[in-house]
Prior knowledge:
Strand content: under 5%
Number of helices: 4
Mean pLDDT: 85
Radius of gyration: 30 Å
Helix content: over 70%
Structural class: mainly alpha
Order of helices and strands: HHHH
Largest sheet: none
Distance between the termini: 88 Å
Low-confidence stretches: none
Number of strands: 0
Amino acid sequence: MILAKRTYLRVRILIKKVIVIQRSLRLSNTYKTTKKLIEMNFQNQAQEFYNKQKNFIQNWDQIKNQKRVEIHMNSITSREFQRLSTEKFKEYQNL
C-alpha cells in the first residue's frame, strides 16, 4: 500500500512537470509562428508598397499632366477634444 502511494505521488509530480514543459514548448512554438507571420505580413506590405511606388514612377508622365487635388489634413495629428474645441473649426474643414 505504501509503495503504491509513493509511486502514485511520484507519477503525479512527473505529470505536473511534464505539463509545465509542454506549456512552455507550446508557448515557444506559438511565439515563433507568430513572429514568422508578422514578418511575412510586413514583407507583403512592403512588397505591395514597392509595387505601388514602381507603378507610380512608371506612370508619372501621365499622372503629372492630369488634374489632381491636394488635401491637407491637419486634424489628424491632434486629439479629438482639441480639434473640436479649436476656433474656426468649420473653416479649417473647408465647409
